[in-house]
Design goal:
- By secondary structure, the protein is mainly alpha-helical.
- It is built from 16 helices and 5 strands.
- It has a 5-stranded parallel β-sheet, sandwiched between helices.
- Strand 3, helix 7 and strand 4 form a beta-alpha-beta unit.
- The longest helix is centred in the last third of the chain and has 24 residues.
């Protein structure tokens, strides 16, 4: 169906992985000079030069937090934009992220001794975008917090065990992919059941934090500075008593999310088989192209399930229109997507919410199918 590399579909033009504030107390020119230097090192896949740029920025008087968020974070945002514009491959992007991660490590010597309480920072289960959480952990360390950074894809049971061992005063959870909202909700409620409040952040929770509120998190921050400022302002409110997911999301009682999530593999398999019969051109695809098509279908079903979970069409239509934009950028006609939606809808005749979401997605794709994105003049 597409040439979009499966692992990184959540990069969206203008909405990138690391949401650090662009403003810097040192002025744009000083920051931009070192940001451009780091970008050059990243594009050359030169980790040693990247470390030198960080050292030079500190020597020039930029404080470590500014280097973290307005230099390294800004370069990571640019990486996402370049990938979405088809000017970087997945391999290039992964190499750039690894170099930025090493650049963060170059700041370790500038951490002060901890003088504040203990915070656990982690990505929710299945969330592998680790750099935003890493930046938050380092900002908190720079501000004197004792931080346990658990990294990417932390199973909820392991997270709870770590909280009991460490005695954290607060847990900060990161998620970049909307498809992680169900596991994020499980993590939030599990942590709150221990009596520890939870702050969440990342694109998965919406640029305005709408899904953080919906899932009952105790606090939300749009970026690392905002999170650190909120923690410095005082303790988070005590979490609610233990409760079930349906208490926050009554619509889950209709079981549509549960059934779609449980049957996702079967839905993908049947849709893929039917699509091959409906579009004879698929028979000429290579094995790799067919694998990518199956991955695309799996992504569509995953985002449909996430939209059912939060009962918000934007999760599904946003993914579909972003996919159409990426396809268009890569010269792949977007009209290959609606037939897959038709076949998927046919399998979900008894799911009224799912069918409404699919209908809305089909409507949102209309401008792309007609050959002109909705944002075009």
């Amino acid at each position: 169906m597409t040439t979009v590399p499966a692992p990184d579909r959540e990069h969206r033009p203008g909405r990138l992985l690391v949401r650090a504030r662009p403003a810097s107390p040192h002025g744009d020119d000083r920051v931009r000079e070192h940001m451009d230097g780091l970008w050059t090192a990243v594009r050359a896949a030169d980790a040693y030069s990247a470390a030198e740029v960080v050292a030079d920025a500190l020597h020039a008087g930029l404080d470590p937090e500014t280097v973290l968020l307005d230099v390294i974070g800004a370069v990571q945002r640019r990486v996402g934009a370049e990938w979405a514009a088809n000017r970087m491959s997945v391999a290039d992007e992964h190499a750039a992220t690894a170099i930025n991660d090493r650049a963060v490590a170059a700041l370790a010597a500038h951490r002060p001794a901890p003088t504040r309480g203990r915070v656990t920072v982690a990505c929710v289960d299945k969330e592998w975008h680790a750099l935003p959480a890493r930046l938050l952990a380092e900002v908190l360390r720079l501000r004197g917090w004792r931080v346990d950074h658990l990294g990417a894809q932390v199973p909820t049971a392991h997270l709870i065990s770590q909280i009991h061992r460490a005695g954290s005063a607060v847990v900060c959870l990161s998620a970049s992919l909307s498809t992680r909202l169900p596991v994020a909700h499980a993590a939030v409620t599990a942590v709150q059941a221990t009596g520890v409040p939870v702050m969440v952040g990342g694109l998965a929770f919406g640029v305005d934090g709408r899904y953080a509120r919906l899932l009952g998190a105790d606090a939300w921050a749009s970026d690392a500075r905002g999170a650190a400022d909120r923690l410095a302002a005082g303790p988070l409110p005590a979490p609610r008593p233990p409760h079930q997911a349906v208490d926050d999301l009554p619509h889950l009682a209709d079981q549509e999310y549960t059934l779609v999530a449980r049957c996702a593999r079967g839905l993908v398999r049947r849709t893929f088989q039917d699509l091959q019969r409906r579009l004879p051109a698929l028979r000429d695809q290579t094995a790799e192209q067919l694998e990518r098509t199956a991955e695309d279908l799996a992504q569509i079903v995953d985002f449909l399930a996430a939209a059912l979970y939060v009962d918000d069409a934007d999760v599904f239509t946003g993914f579909l229109t972003w996919t159409a934009e990426v396809l268009t950028t890569r010269g792949v006609p977007a009209h290959v997507v609606p037939p897959a939606l038709d076949l998927l809808e046919g399998q979900l005749r008894d799911f009224p919410r799912a069918r409404r979401l699919i209908a809305g997605g089909r409507e949102a794709l209309g401008p792309f199918v007609r050959g002109r994105p909705a944002s075009a003049p």
